[in-house]
Design brief:
The complex is a heterotetramer, with 2 copies of chain A (310 residues) and 2 copies of chain B (258 residues).
Chain A (H helix, E strand, L loop, with lengths): L11 E3 L2 E3 L3 E3 L21 E3 L16 E4 L2 E4 L8 H12 L5 E6 L4 H11 L5 E7 L16 H14 L3 E5 L7 H10 L4 E4 L3 E4 L1 E2 L4 E2 L5 E5 L4 H14 L4 E4 L5 H10 L3 E4 L2 H4 L3 H15 L16
Parallel strand pairs in A: 3-4, 3-16, 4-7, 7-8, 8-9, 9-10, 10-15, 15-16
Antiparallel strand pairs in A: 1-2, 5-6, 6-14, 11-14, 12-13
Chain B lengths: L3 E12 L4 E7 L12 E4 L11 E4 L2 E3 L4 E7 L3 H7 L6 E8 L10 E7 L6 H10 L3 E8 L15 E7 L6 E2 L17 E5 L2 H13 L3 E5 L15 E4 L2 E4 L6 E3 L8
Parallel strand pairs in B: 8-9, 8-12, 9-10, 10-11, 12-13
Antiparallel strand pairs in B: 1-2, 1-7, 2-6, 3-4, 3-7, 5-6, 13-16, 14-15
Classes of the chains: A alpha/beta (310), B mainly beta (258).
Bound molecules: flavin-adenine dinucleotide (2 copies), flavin mononucleotide (FMN) (2 copies) and FE2/S2 (inorganic) cluster (2 copies).
One FE2/S2 (inorganic) cluster binds next to loops of chain D.
């Protein structure tokens, strides 16, 4: 009886990152953390993935950049950010004392650009890892192109691996025929973990104006609508690679998160759901704990990859 | 200013017409201070097609009774669902969001609202009046049905009306109102909220008359809290979020409006 | 004034098929037609795509075969049907007097199987075309595999083209990196039209039982959730090929249908929405007509591909 | 039998407990004939997580007044939404769907319902009674709270009850009821509806006693009209749809049940 009141262990390890719990926030949906301090203690999170950071300032795409879709949304923000130097000087000081892990999402249009950002981030003590975004559908050059072919995904991973010695996560694109193949390609080049999925390419049209809803015509689909697709990608990838997998795509509650853990994700990220409920991540952490207690598991690691397929 | 999330309780839903309604809401806890021009992000429950929250300006605030009101025009599926709320129902809000109108240098302000764009002007008119400023309110709409509760503003100053079809007030657009016929206008500041073309016309008029002008933009929003960067506006200092750095902008800062 | 009361022309031409209007029903969601006669006059439709027809009887996959997802559903029916001979003897007589077009959806696991079905259907007078399903995610061999590589898609199209002289539509899989490439490959081999999208691969897990919701683990996602993905595939395909494109994926009302027409689809198919409202197709036809009247178009052809991208 | 779609009007929603409720529905037009065992596909509106319709057995029918009732147990998000319906609300149904119970050869039938599985048994009991058959009704549940409106059946025959915890009727599962203690049972037919394990136990018992047995299955359904082939059951004659060729099956035909 007494074991039922002992709290289960929620901590997980993603390569060298020791996460308090498997719940992180997805890049581009949580700013850098401070945006959410009014709504929760961000230090309760397993980790924060920052908004994409590029070598130079980027204005991103023109307005309109979003459209609502059935149980989801399209965005074409396009990596708007002030560049890595600005990040180091102005944003890093505000988040360097967080007691949660902060991982910087790194993007660019050239291999050299990715390398430059990674090299500049390496010395930052608080930043123990980066997430290489080779899957952004919202930039004209680079971005998703890197994530849709094995040779390109391999080459950018290899180049960044050479200059970046801390935890290197590579974020995969779902807009491919065979995502497990790409996961293996980046694993072979030394990625410490893969995260997936980035947004699915999508489109919406304003029939009254007969114009696309987004200035970029197509954009990235996220939210509950994509959850089944994300899950069916996490599952084969988790079976294909030995490195830890970070799952995301449409996670809105603890039940969704547990589906990804069962499918083989060591940790998960919550994206669009933060817009609907800025305190949702804390609820997800609590919900996972409740589930473990109810099913008498002493650690979240006991359910990771434990999908029973007979 | 700390933003918060509360489950408000609807205590009244005034259907002003088939299109317009005012939701009166009770807050279960002490509301934080809300400034004129700020807005809320409302969760539309039980509506399969509305996944994202919907932004609405704060219309009224009663600090003593811990109440607020939203004035809403039915624009689509989310606002139609909100119109069906009745006393006792719950409405979850993230608030207060965004910046607010800046108080004017001079002592005479003109507030212009087009259609439901009048919503943020009530709190502004009240605030200006409390500060001892002279206030004129100009309300425009397509027909008399789009002129909502004009008499409410009379306690703060003169109310002027235009309608496209002339069914109430002067016929024409707000910028064609006789208020603007003179050479030198008495206003030191113009505030406007309404459809984009109206705000641009007001902005141009203000500029031509050398009057400072602020507008409240209604850009599409996902998060409302500065996290998604979907709601941006091009300003002279680069892209700004209209949910945190706006929705109120001085038109001299808006790049595409010059 | 008088032109506003003249009804707009809804008819479209897909190769040799003259459709009364662009609204057809998607394969596997409308049976063979008779299932819906209680709810509407099926002869009002532009066309009916039958449930998949294979060379031999197939039992399909085991129960459970479906799971609900946010604004969508997963299915893993797996081509259950009694085979082409049964179709010809027992089903064809019931539908041969329809005044709407009937197109048979043809599936199999081998090129020879596809050819056999096509050859047997060729003599049927009422059947003026077939839709080659090279994109079914729910069969172990064949099925989607044909639709995920250009050489395989080309080879099955080529083989069937040789034995089938009526209208040949090839139905494409969305589970690929570059769908336009595959569309071009089948166009080059003589396809008269392409239809897309078939279901997206997806997955769902019952967290209480820690088991997949489907007996097949993964299945095909359909319904409103996939609409943005479908639209962004129809648009580039319509720009890549000269043959007519038939669009589908999540269409539930006239507004959705018009989005696909604007994106370049000559006709559309309605699938999962038939389950929610068995009379939805008639409402969509009426809604398209209303839109054309409201916007003063005299023919539906005036909006096809007329998306304004500046 | 022509199936149809109607917008029913809720005229009463009886909350029998926290989990069970009965929806009483008015049909705006003449309802077609509905047979015992048939079901409806109900559209759950305003619920973002319920895209597909939900199947429910028809509980009562009043042909004179053109009314029907559904007995529902809250199982998840869709049934929870239906529980909130109140008088005046609309419920869209596709109906009548599926086959129906076959009338027995002999003159004494036993009807077994587990939990909400009792729903289709009311119409069946009435029909058998009208045909002059002798009827026994056996209702099983986990606790007394799962035994819904047992007294309704008394006008048609004897009512027997079991609960897992013994809080009402005999303690144990339905198949452990003392009705079955004798060697030769008086029943010429057993009808059952309830959780899968219960129906299988009943089927085995019936088989061992040489009694004909029909069950009403609750397979997951998408369309309910034979179009999607999602709801299949393996029978000795291959896969059958439980929405058109079922939901009622004679257990001797069910392949996996032998
Ligand atoms: C800061 C701000 C304050 C606002 N204040 C008010 C107010 O006080 N009263 C009021 O009635 N309306 C106000 N609006 C507009 C209101 O948010 C939209 O009318 C509402 O979101 C439409 O939702 P819907 O589901 O009914 O429409 P939909 O069915 O989603 O769309 C119908 C139309 O509304 C527009 N729209 C949809 N979503 C948004 C959105 N998030 N922001 C802006 N426009 C949108 C669409 O472009 C479309 O043309 C405000 C908007 C903003 C950004
Ligand atoms: C022919 C038939 C007759 C039925 N008659 C009744 C009845 O008279 N009264 C009653 O209370 N229930 C009846 N059911 C069961 C009822 O359909 C489900 O309980 C209901 O669909 C659950 O919906 P939900 O949204 O509340 O649950 P969800 O949140 O969707 O799921 C909760 C649980 O319900 C199960 N479930 C979900 N959808 C279905 C479905 N379409 N069919 C069956 N089970 C499902 C799920 O497996 C899950 O375990 C019947 C089912 C069938 C097939
Ligand atoms: C508005 C928005 C901006 C995003 N920006 C980024 C980004 O900068 N870098 C990145 O790797 N992913 C970005 N993403 C993708 C998310 O991190 C995540 O992969 C995706 O949204 C799926 O998860 P979700 O369904 O939980 O949102 C963005 C998503 C959204 C909605
Ligand atoms: C239950 C079900 C069965 C299907 N069976 C087939 C099939 O036999 N052949 C085929 O080409 N597509 C099949 N499909 C795919 C649909 O024809 C369609 O491509 C897909 O569902 C997307 O459209 P929708 O979102 O409108 O349903 C099936 C879809 C569903 C939901
Ligand atoms: S709405 Fe997300 S940043 Fe403004
Ligand atoms: S539920 Fe579709 S065939 Fe039975």
């Amino acid at each position: 009886m007494s074991d039922s009141i002992i709290k289960p262990d929620l901590s997980v390890k993603v390569h060298n990152l020791n996460l308090k719990n498997p719940v992180m926030t997805a890049s581009g949906t949580f700013g850098y953390g401070p945006e959410f301090e009014d709504f929760m203690d961000v230090n309760l999170l397993g980790g924060i993935l920052t908004k994409a950071c590029t070598s130079k300032n980027r204005d991103g795409n023109r307005y309109p950049r979003m459209a609502e879709t059935p149980m989801g949304m399209l965005n074409s923000v396009g990596l708007q950010n002030k560049g890595v130097d600005y990040f180091i000087q102005n944003i890093y000081p505000k988040i360097k004392d967080y007691t949660t892990e902060v991982i910087v999402n790194v993007s660019d249009s050239t291999v050299e650009g990715y390398m430059e950002v990674a090299e500049k981030l390496l010395p930052l003590e608080k930043i123990s890892g980066i997430e290489l975004n080779i899957s952004c559908p919202n930039v004209k050059e680079g971005g998703m192109a890197f994530g849709t072919s094995c040779p390109m995904a391999a080459s950018v991973t290899k180049a960044v691996r050479e200059v970046y010695s801390k935890t290197l996560i590579v974020k995969l694109s779902p807009n491919v025929t065979n995502i497990a193949e790409i996961a293996r390609a980046v694993e072979d080049e030394g990625a410490d973990s893969v995260s997936l999925i980035n947004t699915l390419l999508g489109m919406a049209i304003d029939i009254e104006k007969r114009k696309p809803m987004l200035s970029t015509i197509t954009g990235g689909l996220s939210g509950p609508a994509v959850k089944p697709v994300a899950l069916r990608m996490v599952w084969p990838v988790a079976n294909a690679v030995k490195i830890p997998v970070i799952g995301m795509g449409g996670i809105s509650n603890a039940s969704d998160a547990i589906e990804f853990l069962l499918a083989g994700a060591t940790a998960i990220q919550v994206g669009t759901a933060n817009f609907i409920d800025p305190a949702v991540c804390v609820k997800i952490i609590d919900g996972i704990e409740d589930y473990l207690i109810r099913h008498k598991f002493s650690s979240v690691n006991d359910i990771i990859g434990k999908l029973n397929i007979q | 200013m700390k933003r918060t999330i509360h489950d408000f309780r609807v205590y009244q839903n005034d259907h002003l017409s088939n299109d317009y309604f005012v939701l009166y809401l009770d807050c279960p806890e002490k509301m934080p201070e809300i400034l004129p021009g700020q807005f809320v992000q409302a969760l539309v429950e039980h509506s399969p097609a509305t996944y994202l929250r919907r932004p609405f300006s704060v219309y009224h605030v009663d600090e003593q009774l811990n109440r607020m009101a939203l004035m809403i025009k039915v624009a689509g599926i989310g606002t139609a669902a909100l119109m069906k709320l009745s006393a006792g129902d719950t409405l979850n809000l993230i608030y207060p969001l965004g910046n607010s109108f800046e108080m004017p240098e001079g002592d005479h302000a003109l507030l212009i609202g087009g259609g439901v764009g009048i919503a943020p002007m009530y709190m502004l008119a009240k605030r200006l009046h409390d500060l001892g400023k002279k206030v004129d309110v100009l309300i425009g709409g397509r027909t008399s049905k789009d002129i909502i509760e004009p008499n409410l503003y009379r306690e703060f100053g003169n109310v002027h009306i235009t309608t496209d079809d002339g069914s109430l007030g002067e016929k024409g657009m707000v910028t064609q109102h006789s208020l603007f016929s003179g050479e030198n206008l008495p206003f030191s500041k113009i505030y406007a909220c309404g459809p984009d073309p109206m705000m641009r016309a007001v902005s141009n008029l203000a500029k031509s008359k050398g009057i400072d002008c602020e507008v409240s933009l209604e850009n599409l929003m996902a998060c409302g809290i500065g996290a998604c960067l979907c709601c941006i506006v091009e300003t002279n200092e680069g892209n700004k979020t209209s949910c945190v750095e706006g929705p109120v902008f001085n038109t001299r800062d808006l790049k595409a409006w010059q």
